Amino acid sequence: MNSVEAMDLIDEDHLTGSEDDDDDDNPSSPGSAYDDGNLINVAMENEVTAQLVAAGVVGVAAAAAITSSKKKKRPHSFETNPSIRKRQQNRLLRKLRQTIFEYATRVGQQAVVLVATPGKPNNIFKVFGAKPLEDVLKNLRPNVMDKLDEALAAQAPPRVQDDPSLFELPPLIIDGIP
User: Fold this and answer.
1) Residue 35 Cα distances to 17, 26, 161, angstroms
2) Strands 112-117 and 124-129
3) What is the pLDDT of residue 117?
4) Within the chain, how many helices (H) and strands (E) appear?
């Protein structure tokens, strides 16, 4: 299947939406600069998206999502400053909460966000989203935290035998991050 056949499939299946859609006036990501007609051509330039386009209608949709997503000038990186990291955490959790509630309202599916930080004296376990699923996960907290601790312990590097002739300083841990 080439890109022309893929575009024909999209036109035949009427996946473009109705003409009186409320969302047609507002782009999904303001400031993104892509041309709908050029989308498949851009997708065909990338090896992965070209394979997706060849897979059919679902692949075309996936390739369109990949090529139309806004590329960042600077990729995200871990913040080492604890106060800035906490501020980013709060801001991103607020955005996630809003997005999950919007998703549950618009789509009508059960969706939650689970944030867990094991290893601290008071394990952090936050769940928010659709109420029935949120309650189920809150009731499963001990099981989830135990399984998470086991999975993290399995991935941890093995302990190195200590040399008794050497002095070792305790590890520096700031806000749970070594």
Assistant:
1) 17, 15, 60
2) antiparallel
3) 82
4) 7, 2
The tokens for 130 are 């659709």
Beta strands in 71-133 (DSSP E): 112-117, 124-129
- Residues forming beta bridges with residue 92, ordered by sequence position: none
The pLDDT, as a whole number, for residue 20 is 42
47 and 89, same domain (yes or no):
no
In a domain, 171, yes or no: no
pLDDT at 59: 63
Contact 60, 40 (CB under 8 A): yes
Give the domain extent around 114: 82-155
> 97, 116, 100: which is closest to 108 by C-alpha?
100
pLDDT means per 10 residues, the chain with 178 residues, are 43 42 43 48 64 65 66 73 91 95 89 85 86 93 90 74 75 71
Could you tell me the end-to-end alpha-carbon distance of the chain, in angstroms, rounded to an integer? 51
**pLDDT of 56:** 58
SS3 115: strand
Residues 110, 132: contact at Cβ < 8 Å? Answer: yes
The interaxial angle of helices 3-12 and 47-54, nearest 10 deg, is: 50
Domains in the chain, number: 2
Considering the domain architecture, whether residues 31 and 59 belong to the same structural domain is answered as yes
